[in-house]
Each structure stands twice: as structure tokens, then as C-alpha cells.
Hints:
Layout: H1 3-15, E1 29-34, E2 37-43, H2 52-59, E3 72-77, H3 89-96, E4 100-105, H4 115-122, E5 126-129, H5 133-139, H6 141-149, E6 153-160, E7 165-167, H7 186-195, E8 199-203, H8 204-210, E9 225-229, E10 242-244, H9 247-256, E11 262-265, H10 269-277, E12 283-288, E13 297-298, E14 307-313, E15 316-322
Parallel strand pairs: 3-4, 4-5, 6-11, 6-12, 8-9, 8-11, 9-10
Antiparallel strand pairs: 1-2, 1-3, 7-13, 12-15, 14-15
Amino acid sequence: MQVNERYMRRCIELARYGQMHAAPNPMVGAVIVHGDRIIGEGYHAVCGKGHAEVNAIASVRAADRALLCDSTMYVSLEPCAHYGKTPPCARLIVKTGIPRVVVGCVDPFAKVQGRGIAILREAGVEVEVGVLDAECRALNRRFITAQTKRRPYITLKWARSADGFIDRWRDEAEGEAAARLSSEASLMRVHQLRAMHQAILVGHNTLRMDRPQLNVRHWAGNQPRRVVLGRVAEGELPAGWLAYADIDTALAELYRTEGVQSLLVEGGQQTLQSFIDQGLWDEAYVELSPVVLGSGVPEPRMPVGVTLNEEHYFGATVWHYTE
């Protein structure tokens, strides 16, 4: 493995520590190397707090501070160039005197987009860009999708019976409960997914029939915003929920007004199929249950040609679809 790739992989490893609390900012890791020794490391832990580069520089011991002017900083995402909740990291790097920076991928955020790299180069810093570019972009696929497509990154999720149904046929008037397809262990994965997204959406039928909590109970993390799609009668909408009449309105408002960059769709067959048919999805997780229903509501139909991988989480087998 080349030296640059080895240290960039460490940046990616560090960045993942921020996956639950960095949003809506991207996950970023940074490593400072002198010779063949790491003298500083950092990652972006919480939105509004120090960025990876700041934390990496701060972690350098007093005895090693003099080495910064002869060191290389590796960072998984282009250093920021603007004043937001924190000052621009590109200018801090210049001020610190680090002479060489290796960047994983360019930041597509409108206020950056190469400006951080330009600041460094204009100050005489040697900059190399694109080391493990694909891996660094995959790390922040939610953030990058939101910046480039101007909508939240969309993850679909459902559980299917062994014979391909997501629920039994139910009589709403009798108040029948939904079929139980997830195990206690696999619920941990469901709630982990919820904690990794800023909002979670169901259709109005699911809200009316199941009154789901849609919160994070079996995993540590932030509570996602709760969203219902479709027309909801007066008195049916719980406090704190957001309601939108259609998918296009929901995505536009969640992105522009609510600042949501990642959306988990857990609705019924009709809601899920609507997102699929409109091509409005980025990945999908389907839990395979051993339960046999015999008949019921068929699972959504995925497009032909999408990528399918089988994965395993907490004892559950999951189909993972990506475009």
C-alpha cells in the first residue's frame, strides 16, 4: 500500500467516529505525519465544534509543535474556506506552517468547491488532491448527494417475509396490528439506521393504522425528524411531525426549509413504490425474515439492473440495494 493511501485510510477511519453527530456537516478525518510518524490526529465529532484539521493540530504535543513546519497533513475532505460556525480551516493550516497537504476529495459545498485548495496553493502549500477519492466520496455520500442534487439522500427500508410480503392484509376498522417481521436483535439495525438519518418518513396510511413512534430506542443517537406523506385529517397529526402532500414538496421543503440532508423512508408498499418509481432513492435495505405469511401486501418492486449485495447485521440477513 502506498504511503498516501495508508494515511488517507486512517483519515477515513477517524472520520467515521463522527457519523452520528457531525451532520449536517460532513464526516472528516485528518492526520498529521512527520517522516514516518503520526504526530497528530483529529476528526469532526459534532456539528458546530472543531473541524478535523483543527482537532488534529490541537492534538500535537508541545514537544512536536516545531515539527509542523516539516510535516504533511492528510485530510479526507478539502479544508473549508469560509467562515461558518468555525473559522476556515485552510487559513489555519497556512498559519500553522504545514507545508504539504494531501486531500481525499473536493468539497462540493457551494462556499468551498476548490476554494480551500486554492487558498493553500496561493500561500505556497503543496497540495495533492484525489487520494482514495472514491472511498472519501462514499464516506460522505449523504452530504455530497444533498449538495449536488439539492435534495436529501434517500434510504428505503422494509422487512419482507420469506414468501415476499411486507404485511398481512389488515382490516383497518378492526385495528389489526402489523405483521411482526423484525426480531428484537434486528431492531437494533433499524434504529441504527434511524440514528444515521436526519428525518424519517411514512405514508398517511401507516400513520393512521399503526401510530408509529419512529424514534431511536434501541440505539444511541439523535432522534430524526418525523415526516408523514399524504393528506392527514385534522386531529390525526401528532405534535412535532411534518406533513407534506406529495414527494416533490416533501423533498424540496425538507432540504430548503428544514435543512435535512438524509431521509429514511419506512412507509408501506405504496409509499415505498412511489419513491422507487420516481427514481428518488439512493440505497435500500431489505431485512429477510424467516416468517411465512402465505398472502398479504407484496413487497415493493426494485428496478432491473440495480446492484444487490447480501449483508448481515445483528443476526439478520439484509439485502442492500444501490444504484
